[in-house]
Predict the 3D structure of the following.
Amino acid sequence: MPANVGRPARLSLDAIVAAATRILETEGLEKLSMRRLATDLGSAPMAVYHHVRDKDDLLVHVMESQARAMPRPSFPDDPRERLIEASVLLYELLAERPWIVEVLTGRDLIGPSALWIVEAMIGAAADHGCSDDDAVYVYRTIWFYIVGDLVIRVARHGRVGENETVAALTADTHPRLAAVAGRWAELNARDTHRRGITAIVNGLLG
């Protein structure tokens, strides 16, 4: 009988990244651990550590894999339109992968392959006439809007406390809120990211 019968298949970095991605997409960042990953792979945690130093290193590999698979469309020649389209694309790519937002905001990690879209956004602002410093400011302002919007949307999912609080307001004390209280949940649920990004870009570029 061959000596390796019954032993698990040798791990590869690609297999580890694929398994980690499945956990992140289906259960979220908090469920990903090296021990859980090893269990899903039918291996021992130490075998995983032969390929990645720690969880942060693993997350960088996963984000690199995601970034390499993301589409890189051609953007409009007009700098303003290019900035809007690049920003909307960034929002939508992250909205499909909310765990990446959690990684970027909580662990200060980045996959270098994702920086092409940051380059496109800063380049569009510079082509519009912004200085290098101002172009970075434009990008960061849009980035804060994107992250803030997505973090709030994820946190709000399945929660009704705010809707109930607004619904209980009266016109005597909060006339504007009371006027829309019956539609508050629907208004909050609207997907307005393109409108918001367009308004921010127009305000920043003048």
Remarks:
- The two ends are 75 Å apart (CA to CA).
- The chain is about 65% helix and 0% strand.
- The CA atoms of residues 30 and 153 lie 18 Å apart.
